[in-house]
């Protein structure tokens, strides 16, 4: 291959046949999951001098392979799961709801978790998101409010490394600038801005978990443009930053160690039982356990850990483990413009609008508009999917590339008890455990809001004089790969799974750090809130030990 880059086939998880995967003696805390929540919790607890062990179901990935994984991402022969070595048997799932839920589009099993392929947008929830029932008349109120989480948001922005600005008039109050300046608006943002000015739609910058300048020993973004499946430079944050930092402070990471169940008595967990690649089974004992497996695998693990004391699943005396599964619904309008738009030069959003967010009420959900920098096909994808060569190929790419535009929107879905994650009674994974069954139900409020977002997007396209070629609307609801709500937080043990300190009501030594604790979803990308809650959980674990 040219330029000395490795071929796509060369990327492999780190070979570690001789790795020691035996339990850690005298562990203070066992963290289950090495994504952003687990990594942040482990780092904070190891920094405090605690003996920490992280159990991760997936493998480690070699940073040197990221260019090869980038090549996979741009080749049509490779699907999204191929980029990070998805395993059909290990990652098997069911989707029995009214809408098919494509779970494996949304997750990476491995050290770093889904931040290995996330896009990196990081916003704080608005103040009213914490008081949805009181302010909007629907959903639920969180047992904490924005002011409770505000200092943790500031810490999370420093931990992840956020590039942002104070130009969003609709954002909640903040106490200090972002750690790095915001990325400048893209070329196509300027096209959108002219139309939005005429329509009196306010645009503003987007906080990004990627370096606009050197930060935390990582380089500034160099513009590869493939952010969502892979960032080869490391400028975009991923959870390996905190996992490796935790290791440097004494934490132990055991990869390829899927936890099969949690052993327990009536009041506490005694051990996490995990498997290894050589089919051995081990018990990791600890004084405290933090479950940080995301919005699907967290309830699945609790349900797999049923016993005579907890016949419906561990920590499930409320019957709500797995219930209130939520997603952000996508509304999008795509088209072409009779002039260059320079799409696919930047692989992330640089401008948004939260103007309509706080108009939310019982009829319409909060939503935000996203002005895309990556609409339309890539030249590589076009070249590799055609049958032509030479001048004919060049002419086709010139005619079909560079004039696409798109405006998206994230829309809140209300928590519904009939939207849930359960266990499939008929299908098992590679360890003979029942696979997660995602039963996704959306609701009329979200559908109405998707339609409203589409109408605003159409107005922008009309003002631009653009031709609409496709629309993702209420007839075809697209999830945005954000799992939330399956172990909700609350003060009443009959109506929630964890308390405001993120500790399960039923078990005195088990905390959950995950978007699964969200009582409502809002319409902001969840990772910054996940990170803030992880920092909060770590403080509460330390207080209890």
General description of the model:
- The structure is a single chain.
- The protein has 545 residues and is of the alpha/beta class.
- It is 25% helix and 16% strand.
- The chain has twelve helices and 19 strands.
- Strands 5, 11, 12, 13, 14, 17 and 18 form a seven-stranded antiparallel beta sheet that branches. Strands 6-2-1-10-19 form a five-stranded parallel beta sheet, with helices on one face. A three-stranded antiparallel beta sheet has the order 7-8-9.
- β15 and β16 form a beta hairpin.
- α1 packs parallel to α12, α5 packs across α12 and α6 crosses α11.
- The protein is globular and about 65 Å long.
- The N and C termini lie far apart (54 Å).
- The mean pLDDT is 95.
Layout: helices, strands, pairs:
Blueprint: E1 29-32, H1 36-47, E2 52-55, H2 66-74, H3 80-83, H4 132-136, H5 146-160, E3 163-164, E4 180-181, H6 187-199, E5 204-205, H7 240-248, E6 252-254, E7 259-264, E8 269-275, E9 281-285, E10 288-291, H8 294-304, E11 329-336, E12 351-353, E13 367-371, H9 379-384, H10 390-400, E14 404-411, E15 420-428, E16 434-439, H11 444-464, E17 467-472, E18 478-479, E19 510-512, H12 527-544
Parallel strand pairs: 1-2, 1-10, 2-6, 3-4, 10-19
Antiparallel strand pairs: 5-12, 7-8, 8-9, 11-14, 11-17, 11-18, 12-13, 13-14, 15-16
Low-confidence stretches: none
Sheet with the most strands, sense and barrel status: 7 strands, antiparallel
Give the termini distance in whole angstroms. 54 Å
Q: Please indicate the percent range of residues in DSSP E strands (runs of 2 or more).
A: 15-25%
- Helix count from the secondary structure assignment: 12
**How much helical structure, as a percent, in the residues?**
10-25%
Dominant shape: globular
- Care to count the β-strands? 19
**Radius of gyration, whole Å:** 23 Å
Question: What oligomeric state do the depicted chains represent?
Answer: single chain
Whole-number average pLDDT? 95
Structural class by helix and strand composition: alpha/beta
């Amino acid at each position: 291959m040219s330029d000395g880059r490795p071929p796509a086939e060369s990327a492999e998880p780190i070979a570690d046949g001789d790795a020691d995967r035996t339990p850690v003696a005298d562990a203070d805390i066992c963290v289950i999951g090495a994504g952003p929540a687990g990594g942040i919790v482990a780092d904070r607890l190891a920094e405090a001098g605690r003996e920490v062990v992280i159990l991760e179901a997936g493998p480690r990935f070699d940073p040197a392979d990221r260019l090869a994984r980038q090549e996979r991402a741009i080749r049509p022969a490779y699907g999204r799961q191929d980029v990070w070595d998805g395993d059909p048997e290990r990652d098997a799932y069911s989707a029995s709801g009214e809408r098919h839920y494509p779970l494996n589009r949304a997750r990476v099993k491995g050290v770093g978790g889904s931040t290995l392929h996330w896009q990196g947008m990081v916003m704080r929830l608005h103040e009213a998101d914490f008081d949805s029932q009181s302010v909007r008349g629907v959903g639920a109120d969180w047992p904490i409010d924005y002011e409770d989480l505000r200092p943790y948001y500031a810490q999370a922005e420093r931990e992840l490394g956020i590039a942002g600005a104070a130009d969003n008039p609709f954002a909640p109050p903040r106490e200090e600038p972002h750690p790095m300046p915001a990325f400048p608006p893209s070329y196509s943002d300027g096209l959108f801005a002219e139309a939005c000015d005429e329509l009196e739609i306010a645009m503003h910058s987007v906080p990004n978990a990627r370096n606009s300048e050197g930060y935390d020993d990582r380089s500034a973004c160099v513009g590869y443009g493939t952010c969502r499946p892979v960032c080869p430079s490391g400028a975009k944050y991923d959870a390996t930053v905190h996992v490796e930092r935790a290791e440097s402070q004494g934490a132990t990471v055991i990869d390829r160690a899927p936890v099969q169940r949690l052993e327990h008595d009536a009041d506490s967990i005694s051990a996490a039982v995990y498997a290894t690649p050589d089919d051995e089974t081990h018990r990791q004992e600890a004084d405290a356990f933090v479950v940080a497996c995301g919005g699907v695998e967290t309830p699945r693990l609790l349900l797999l850990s049923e016993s005579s004391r907890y016949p419906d699943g561990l920590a499930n005396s409320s019957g709500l483990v797995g219930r209130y599964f939520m997603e952000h619904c996508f509304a999008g309008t795509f088209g072409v413009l009779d002039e260059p738009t320079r799409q696919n030069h930047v692989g992330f959003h640089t401008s948004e609008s939260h103007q309509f967010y706080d108009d939310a009420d019982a009829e319409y959900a909060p939503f935000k508009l996203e002005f895309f920098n990556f609409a339309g096909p890539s030249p590589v994808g076009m070249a590799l999917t055609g049958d032509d060569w030479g001048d004919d190929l060049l002419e086709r790419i010139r005619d079909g590339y560079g004039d696409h535009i798109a405006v998206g929107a994230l829309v809140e879905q209300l928590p519904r008890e009939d939207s849930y994650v359960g266990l499939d009674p008929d299908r098992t994974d590679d360890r003979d455990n029942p696979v997660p069954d995602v039963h996704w139900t959306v609701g009329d409020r979200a559908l109405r809001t998707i339609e409203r977002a589409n109408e605003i997007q159409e107005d922008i396209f009309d003002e631009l004089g653009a031709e609409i070629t496709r629309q993702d609307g209420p007839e075809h609801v697209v999830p945005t790969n954000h799992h939330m709500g399956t172990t909700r937080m609350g003060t009443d043990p009959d109506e929630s799974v964890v308390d405001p300190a993120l500790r399960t009501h039923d078990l005195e030594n088990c905390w959950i750090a995950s978007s699964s604790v969200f009582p409502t979803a809002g319409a902001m990308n969840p990772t910054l809130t996940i990170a803030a809650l992880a920092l909060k959980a770590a403080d509460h674990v330390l207080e209890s030990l």
